[in-house]
Design goal:
The protein is mainly α and 254 residues long. It has one domain. Helices cover 76% and strands 0% of the residues. It contains 13 helices and no strands. α3 crosses α12, α5 packs parallel to α11 and α9 crosses α10. The protein is globular, with a radius of gyration of 18 Å.
């Protein structure tokens, strides 16, 4: 992998990690276009970049949770418990279904159908529950189930978790905030799961540059997404996922 390819993949990751269009699906498409064999260490570095973005963007909320944990504040402890509950499904899926997930991960047909699924749930986000409800342990677990489904390339993690949070009656800003807070333990778990599979002999310079591009662009992409959610424009991405999914399927079946 050269520097140009690493930068392109970093830019794609930075934009699509946060916007509800599936970063994994786009990376699979890009790898097929450029005929890339992306090293695992680069994938991990990109996710570290994404982790830095979310830790930076939600630093206030994270600090409040840490302070609440230290001071044993009931409200903050409940949020931490819900984050743990929401992480259980993806932990189970990642551990027990890792081989199957890897077998379909680079399959363009899987990406195509998954993008259509993402388009559907983004469209449904236009019709959130009219009853404003508080986030609960049960709702946290349901949101966690859809985070687990988003392991499949083409299923947007942010799209599925935020959309179903809104459909469960959670306020859109709260659904988005919770979606990105549960991203933290999920990505940490993925890093731990793959740490022993890394080949440290790969040329790391292009990967560092690609990761920097991913992190910088990712911060502004996340900021853009939060603004779009506030303006009720989250479902706009449904049409994009629909068109891209149909194009991918048309190519794979032609």
């Amino acid at each position: 992998m050269d520097i140009f390819q690493a930068i392109i993949l970093g830019i794609v990751q930075g934009i699509t990690e946060w916007l509800p269009v599936s970063s994994s699906g786009h990376l699979v498409i890009m790898k097929n276009i450029f005929n890339l064999d992306q090293p695992l260490i680069f994938d991990i570095m990109l996710h570290i970049g994404s982790l830095i973005v979310v830790l930076s963007f939600f630093r206030k909320e994270i600090l409040e949770l840490m302070t609440g944990l230290i001071n044993w504040e009931k409200e903050k402890l409940k949020i931490i418990l819900m984050i743990i509950i929401a992480t259980i499904p993806i932990a189970i899926a990642g551990y027990f279904f890792q081989s199957w997930i890897e077998s379909v991960f680079n399959d363009l047909r899987t990406v195509g159908f998954s993008l259509l699924f993402t388009a559907l749930i983004l469209f449904l986000s236009k019709y959130p529950s009219k009853k404003n409800k508080e986030l609960s342990i049960g709702k946290a677990f349901v949101i966690g189930l859809f985070q687990a489904i988003a392991i499949l390339p083409g299923v947007s993690r942010s799209g599925s978790t935020i959309s179903f949070g809104m459909m469960l009656g959670i306020k859109k800003e709260d659904a988005a905030r919770f979606s990105f807070l549960i991203f933290i333990p999920a990505i940490l778990g993925a890093l731990i799961l793959h740490i022993n599979d890394i080949n440290y002999d790969a040329n790391i310079t292009p990967m560092i540059i690609g990761t920097l591009f991913s992190a910088v662009i990712g911060y502004f992409s996340l900021k853009l997404l939060m603004n779009l959610i506030k303006k009720n424009k989250f479902s706009w991405f449904s049409a994009y996922c629909l068109v891209l999914g149909l194009i991918v399927l048309a190519i794979t079946y032609s």
